[in-house]
Amino acid sequence: QLQPSIAALTKGYFETFPEILEYRPDFLRTVVQFTGFGLIQRIRAMIEYQKSFGNAGIAMLQVAKTLLCRPEKSMPTIFGPAIAELIQLRPSAV
Asked: With contact defined as beta carbons under 8 Å apart, do 73 and 66 qualify?
């Protein structure tokens, strides 16, 4: 399954580089937003080179929009149940 792998990778990253959360308490939010932006770039390339934009493209665009505009809503879907543990790793004083 993908969710546990993504959560484990993220947790390992935070354990290795804990200072990232001190400097960027919004790190997870920003990563999710960049993921949405990257997906939009991929969709743009698909339209440009394949000249197609079907139902799959529309679904991808909806996912990208949610990732970019509402990252907090997307986090449970991406990280699964581990999101609660990952959020607790963030410093509370922001």
From this structure: yes
